[in-house]
Structures
1.
Amino acid sequence: MELLTYLATYDLVFPGPARRDRAHARRAAERVVRLLGYEAAWYTNITELVPGARAWNPVTRHTFDGVVAGTGGSFTVVLLQVGED
């Protein structure tokens, strides 16, 4: 849930102030987790949740990308953030 919140709030490329309201992003992430259920399967390409971290496996042709995908309860949800510097 923390990674969903992070990707919805902060920029992968340019660290700094939040791009969106963190509390709102957290509530949205909680709803997604509840929707998919506790048996959901999750995938991410981000290996470390640290501001400015650049350690992930790309899923797009963009210089920077981060994805969290989950499936469960007959739903699939994907949050993808891409960026260029």
2.
Amino acid sequence: MRTSGGSDAALNIPQVPQPEGRFMTATDPTPRMRGFFPSDAPRFAAVCTTETTEGKECGAESSTWDTPMQRDQWMREHADEFGHESFNRSSLAPTTVRVVKAEGAK
């Protein structure tokens, strides 16, 4: 069907058959989402970031402990021994990602 009095250029486009595509269907209609779950106890550590006389960070690292009290004790002892005052504290929480049913899904 032509809607204008234009040229016949569109009529000269070769008609090449296109292959049929596949339907996009969900394999499982149950809504799902990814959940984050602790996989181990949290761990605590610290790094000294005080600038030394050479212009570099001290970089001393504590061990990794199960409680923050041990990390904080290390920081106090390092500060007493070297006079350093700047630290980065970290809490590491090992986590596992699993696919779970979405809330409200049946």
